Every structure is written in C-alpha cells, then in structure tokens.
Amino acid sequence: MKTIEQFNKYVMHSYGRYDLVLDKGGDVTSVDEEGKKYIDFGSGIGVNSLGYCNDEWVEAVCSQAKKLQHTSNYYYTKIQADFAKELCETARYTNMFFGNSGAEANECAIKIARKYSFDKYGKGRHNIITLKNSFHGRTIATLSATGQDVFHNYFFPFVEGFVNVEANNIEDLREKLDDTVCAVMFEYIQGEGGVNRLEQDFVDEIFKLCAEKDVVTVADEVQTGAGRTGKFLCGDHYGHKADLTTLAKGLAGGIPIGVCLSGEKCANVLVPGTHGSTFGGNPIACAGGLAVLNTMNKDGFLDDVAKKGEYFREKLMALPEVGSISGLGLMIGFELKTKDAHDVAKEALEKGLLVLTAKEKLRLLPPLTISYNEIDEGIKILTELLS
Question: If you average pLDDT over residues 7-30, what whole number do you get?
C-alpha cells in the first residue's frame, strides 16, 4: 500500500476512494499493481467508452501526440476542424464550443442562454430552471444549478438565478416558467441522482413551453450522450433536440473534453471575448474524440449498445435480490431489496468486479465495446454477491 500512503500524503482528500491502485488495462479489464484483474462495469464513470487502450484510439492519440500536443486557440488545427465537423454532423448541430469537462460545457451553456436572452430582451430575464435531483457539475455556477441539497453547503454564497422544478411535475414547470426565465436545463436521465428517466410527456411539455416563450432548452448529456443509451444522443429517444446540448465523459474515450453543441438559435451568441478556454479543443483530445466517433458511426455499433443493454437487464431481472431497473442502453441503475448498494460495490471489488453506485442504487456504465462474454463474467460475480 506504499502508493496509497504516498498519494494520501500529497493529494487532498476530496474523494472517498477504494483501496485499489490501478496500473494498466485492456478492453474491459483493468489490472492493479499486484497483477489482479478486474472486470470494469464502470469505465471511469462512463469515460472509457471504448474500454481500456482500444487499438484504433491509441493509434490516433499517439500519432497526434507525436505531431502537436497543444497550441493556442488563437490558431487553427486540422484535427480540431475534422473532429468538430464529424461531431456536428453526427449530433446534427450547427456548431460548438470546446472545453475540458462536463462542468465547463454546462458553464458555457449557462452563459450562452443568458446572453441570448440579454441580447434579445435586455436585463431581468436571466433565471434558469433546473430539476430537483439534478447534477450539473462542481464549479460554483454548476453547483448552484444542481438541484440537490446535499451539494448546497460550505461554499456560500451560491450564484443566483436558478429555480428548481420537480422532475416530471408538469404543473410545477408551468407555474415557475415565467417571464424571468431564459432557459430550462435538464438531464434526460438523472445519472448521479439515481439513474432516473424523465417521462415523455414532461419532456414534451418542456419543449412546448420553451418554444412558446422563446426560452432556451439545454440538455445536459454529459453522462447520457456519446452513445451511452444506444443512440448518439439520449434526446433522440424522446424525439427532441435541445437548443444547446452538453457532452463530455465518454466523448474522447478517456481524455478530458467538454463540448457545448448549439443549434441555429444560439449558434452566433458567443463572439470574440465572451468566452474562452486555454486547453479547449486540445489536439490530443480531438484525436481521441475523432477515434471514438469513427467507431460509433460504424454500421450497427449503437444498435449493439442497445441490445447489450437489454441483455444486461434480462440477466439482472433474473436475480431475486434485484428490484426495479432504470436507465437506457448501457446506462443502468437498479435497486436492491435487502442489501446495501455501497457494501455490494466494496464486495464486488474484492471479487474482481468494478461497479458504481448512484444514491441507493447500483449503477453500471460499462464500456460500449463490452462483449457478451464479459457481461456474463461480471453478472456471475454479481449473482454470487446477491444470492
């Protein structure tokens, strides 16, 4: 445990970490310092979308690192242009802003929404509706947007201008979406909030009311996007495309990235000097992102993600300890009838399986490239733990 002792001496204790030192990985398997292998059903909280060290991804990232690792955003790079084109065409958006994380992408969306309203209507129309139980990041602004009291402590004062609405409560939405509101920001599936899906009629009402009042719709797809639910964007399941959509996590396959995608409505809101990022659009991140998109755009890839998600659910439903199952595709949350999810996650690690939790649920976000045999191996361990 020398590594852990050294780490804890020099790194702030801002995480509740497991006693596990990961050393390397391949596909869906990670390996610790002592050579023990783990099937990873968490993929770095949905970040390693192509698994560990995917060959095509590694080649793309290493090739770019040998050419140009960084340049100022005062200049252009072809890899950034190529990735932006592919992402806009895949997601069917007009343009984008590059950042480095989901929180940064959401900060950008907040600024765009407020500037859109200011440019068109002037001051006083700046409130943003977010949903109770939501999670949008850990900066001061995105914490303020987050609709969970557990995060609202210590860092007062928070940023004003955020109004919380109960998820799936249409009357609450109608009551609070008044003339002071410039945007409604939401997750189609609340990941950190317990893998809870929004109902179709509630989503329909968001888009209906926002269209009537010229209010910007902001879809936080940091966890649900980039193929996680079996479609490139979770909004495609609902038949809607938000004015702004934020992506991060699995988009670059393991390299920090954050993107705010914009449709025509907000495409020209940001002008020189209104927003920026030193590392946003980093060439290595863009190379990783392009490799991810090239894989996801292959025929049948996203259909397979959806099928694997259904296979997971069938296996889980057969376990007597498993209660309700939520999510879409390979974003899965499930309740346990008698056991504590956090205890099971620790026991799973000891057995060679990495899983996540969300509230009182076990949460699974495996690599999108996971094989059926690897699913079966992990389910076998879960079966033993939950029997």
Answer: 97
